[in-house]
Design goal:
6-stranded parallel β-sheet, 46% helix, alpha/beta
Amino acid sequence: MTMSSTGGRRRPPTIHDVAREAGVSRGTVSRVLNGGHYVSPSAQEAVNAAIRKTGYVVNRHARSLITGRSDSVGFLLTEPQERFFEDPNFNVLLSACTQALAAHDIPLLLMLAGTEDERRRITRYITAGHVDGVLLVSSHSGDPVAEQLREAGVPLVQCGKPMGLGSKVSYVAADDRDGARDMVRHLLSRGRRRIGMVSGPLDTPGGVDRLAGYKEVLTEAGVEIDERLIVSGDYSRASGEAGCERLLAQAPDMDAVFVASDLMAQGALTALRRAGRRVPEDVSVGGFDDSIAATEATPALTTIRQPYDRISAEMVRVLLAQIGGEDPAAVILPTELVKREST
């Protein structure tokens, strides 16, 4: 900080102070701040040292007027607001994406758009240029947000495979189908044959792929697919409880249930306890995510771990590359079976 001419009050250091300290021109400092193009290594080192010594902080508003960028990124959740607070996965993704962007000195703006009106307002805000790109989480088929943002030329990376947009949208996803296959193989290895499933919403890629993996392994094992053993939920605890109650009513001989999220599996455990079924003695229970809901459950859940830290880091990497002019990209990451007491 430097002293102002009006007394003892300190004013924030400016780009001129940095240039003076580094012994370079203001233009050289500006080029360093905007990526370091056409700057010698010695000049860049001198400028960075001067920034540290003076405590200079970039005026983002001023820079945005020059570059046309906001230097911020949106984290858009197209789910009802209560889901953000109930489902621990969203908070894990938000935190990890925030940390990954912090390494680039880019702030993350949380946007919740669970209703049609909210989605319309948020889409207007984004396409007006208030953020440089969007990390889109939990997009259902028929949700127009991804298509509208893509058509507006907004850099976009979706968490999970997009439904209906193909290679037009970048995405990062866990291998949902393979994770489901691992879980059902595990339940079969425990001697279970009447394996129920509470799937996720079938207008989401995770809902579709996890159900497909369940059916594939049963078919390979020669176990007939019984539609009475399949219901769907919406990833909430209440839907897992209601779904398990339906399964018990439709197939009382069920000896295992694969639930497509840990939060729903907590609800399934409640339904099984109320019905007098012991876990895992009478019914084995498997979840998906390896969220805090899995370790807080009683008994602790066997589940499929999604690598949320890697998913978040890849979403940020792909988005920043796209903001920089690269083409859309797709990344699919492996999952892992985590065995605990529920099976």
